[in-house]
Amino acid sequence: MKKLAVFVIIILIFGTVSPSLVNGVYAQNDPSILLRISIQADKQIVNQLDKVYGDQIPNDIQILYDKGHGAVNQLDQSLPDDVEKAKQDFLLAMNSFMQISRIISQSSEKVVVVVTVSDTSNRNLSDELDRLVKYVKSLETISKKYDIDTESDFIKIYDLIQELRKQANDLNEVTAGIKKIKIILDSIKNDIRESALEQRSDSIKRFFDRLLDQVDKQLTKAQDNGADQTQIDKGHELILEIRELLSKNQINDAKVIFVELKALMENIGYSIRIT
Q1: Closest-CA residue to 128 (of 179, 164, 182)
Q2: I need a surface site. Which of 36, 119, 193, 259 has the fewest CB within 10 A?
Q3: How does DSSP classify residue 250?
Q4: Closest CA to 132 of 52, 58, 46
């Protein structure tokens, strides 16, 4: 893990990521290395953002982070079935995180530009609202990707932004409007996170279904070849138990039982391979 963290930091600092590098990383024994690197990079960026901006992250950086974080989620869903898509997701995630890292480095001596109660009166509100609109549109695109019904929420946000443009000289109204928008945005982002987790869960279930069908066929073949019937029966029981756990969305428990099933298959001379 320490080597992985160092590798991630080098990428974020020097901005060296390319398809050839991705192919080299993927060529290692564990194809999930792309996901592990992306998750580590995500954590590094979150730590940087927290140290530099706290809870006042500039909109342009927030857009980049959401794009990168979304790519990490997509990468998780792409593996292990779609290698090429996983590589593309990896590149998108890392490039987004590298851009954030460069922005943080270049702006270390500048004042952070965020729409907040304390600095609204000292900035061009119109420019800040333009940035906010850009971020909202990016979030809207992401929500559509996850098929989330947030149309009414985005209509409210755009209406509030229009009101803010008319109330630029009233600091109290601007402050109240921004708070309303933040509450709606937080709700939308929470819906996106929940949807992403649900899609990831569905993807894992589909993967297990294919794998268990394959194991079921292997058990039938092993039985025809005279394997120990006790082991065959146990294998079928484990498959049923895994399917039951998956139906209850108890994925971690299903993974534990699958390890037992995999060991059983190896004992009777069959390895579980992804086909």
Answers
A1: 164
A2: 259
A3: -
A4: 58
